[in-house]
Amino acid sequence: MIQTTDVPVVPLPDVPTDGVSAFKALEGLSLDEALTKIANGLVSFGFKLLIALLVFYVGKFVIKKIYKMTYSLMVNRKVDPSLTTFVLSLIRIVLYFILIVTVIGILGLETSSFLALFASAGVAIGMALSGTLQNFAGGVLILLLKPYKVGDYIEAQGFAGTVKAIQIFHTVINTVDNKAIIIPNGGLSTGSINNYSLEQYRRVDWTIGLSYGCDFQAAREKILSMLSEDDRIVIRYVEDDMARRAEVASNPEIDCLEHPDDPACRDNNSHSYNMSWWRRFRIRRRRHQEAIQQALREKVNMNAGIPVKVERAPFVGLNELADSSVNVVVRVWTHASNYWALYFDMNERFYRELPEAGFDFPFPQLDVHCVGDTLATDADR
Q1: Rounded Cα–Cα distance for residues 324 and 362 (Å)
Q2: How far apart are CA 296 and CA 101, in angstroms?
Q3: Parts of the chain with a pLDDT under 50
Q4: Considering only CA atoms, which of 150, 66, 60, 53 is closest in space to residue 103?
Q5: Taking a C-beta distance cutoff of 8 angstroms, is the pair 105, 98 a contact?
Q6: 100 and 44 both lie in a single domain
Q7: Closest CA to 309 of 333, 287, 275, 330
Q8: Is residue 299 domain-shared with residue 325, that is, in the same domain?
Q9: How many other C-beta atoms lie within 10 A of the C-beta of residue 106?
Q10: In whole angstroms, what is the distance from residue 179 CA to residue 161 CA?
């Protein structure tokens, strides 16, 4: 019969994680004890490394899920693409930084010194890139507050053009002659911006110089008659013009009632031309009822102290008695999409039709008076 005796196992202290302490702990030990300590340390580090890898890959999977959920949410809410890109990048950077710090802590390394080093480096980088960070903050404010968007025509920092891209640090605009202007977002977020595309309706102004002696009232009636012939001009109220545009867009037949001489309405194959009298009667009756209801609403709002609609009818007035001409100012309101087309079209009509109606455009002139042998001008008298 074989007898066995239990050999007492001497407990070994924990292996230090840093290299200097580990070498000190191995001093005075035999080879077997040193190898045992090293083996225990490697096993412990292996378990920590395995857990760290597991946490890293699980965290990476969670970050991807959060990224996809945020992306889907922002797309469904129709958030600006530039803001979506910025938010997704920020979320990914922050989450990966937290994951890396967590993995370093699991491996047994001191994270406090790492965070302190990162904070110090952040302060130094922030001081060196103060202007860039200002542009970054300005880009965030622009993307959140949206004083303008891609496609708007703006004027800022001495430049005017159509916004082509809104990026984190700068905004790119295209001028009318197709030059790309890059403007830092810091100045845009703190400076004045003239956004021509923000409002749907704009006022168009003309100044017409007529010769002295022209009948102003007759010229005024002629100009108003010309303006009334253009359906792009607001007749009285902007709200009514908006409703008319929406109604015409949804039912093109209505436009033929206002313009029966239009070729599309005179076409025998046109459904608008072949509308029955009952259909026309119903449309006119509905318009009449809407006008009555609108008048009643305005009266009720006026009695209740609620501001009523502002009248935007065409205006023609005597603006200035200049040196060589009588300057007449013309002001109308139109949809922003019609601004330049209406401006140039009416300029052409003023130049062509006013002289035909007997209203002349003067040239700069100077009266010269001859007294005996002396030649003098009005300026010398």
Answers
A1: 7
A2: 69
A3: 1-2, 4-15, 17, 261-273, 379, 381
A4: 53
A5: no
A6: yes
A7: 333
A8: no
A9: 18
A10: 9
Tell me the Cα Rg of the chain.
Answer: 40
Tally of residues, the chain: 381
Domain of 363 in residue numbering reads as: 200-235+311-381
153 and 172 housed in the same domain: yes
Distances (CA, A) of 177 to 103, 161, 173, 218: 55, 9, 11, 41
Looking at the fold, whether 230 and 319 belong to one and the same domain comes out as yes
Instruction: Give the amino acid at 201.
Output: Y
CB 83 within 8 A of CB 143: yes
96 to each of 41, 66, 105, 106, 169, how far by Cα in Å?
29, 12, 14, 15, 23
Q: How many CB atoms lie within 10 A of CB 312?
A: 21
**DSSP reduced 3-state for 353:** helix
Indicate the pTM of the whole model. Answer: 0.52
Q: 16 in helix, strand or coil?
A: coil
The answer to whether residue 13 is domain-embedded is no
Separation of alpha carbons 250 and 270, rounded Å:
16
The token duo for 147 is 């004083």
The three-state secondary structure class of 380 is: helix
Q: What angle do CA 53, 55, 61 make, to 5 degrees?
A: 105
Going from the C-alpha of 90 to that of each of 69, 96, 117, 309, the distances in angstroms are 15, 10, 21, 46
Does a structural domain hold residue 220? yes
Structure tokens, 226: 């010309």
Nearest 10 degrees: CA dihedral of 288, 290, 293, 295?
-70
- Strands 159-166, 153-156: pairing is antiparallel
pLDDT digits (tens, 9 = 90+) for 201-253: 889 999 999 988 888 999 999 999 999 888 889 888 877 777 776 665 555 55
Q: What is the CATH number of the domain that holds 335?
A: 3.30.70.100
Does one domain contain both 43 and 65?
yes
The per-residue b/e assignment along 280-295, b for 16 or more CB within 10 angstroms, e otherwise, is eeebeeeeeeeeeeee
Distances in whole angstroms, Cα of residue 23 to Cα of each of 18, 34, 37, 221, 292: 9, 10, 11, 105, 98
Count CA atoms closer than 13 A to 50's CA, side-chain side.
6
The dihedral through the CA atoms of 293, 294, 298, 304 has a sign that is: positive
Residue finishing a domain among 251, 274, 309? 309
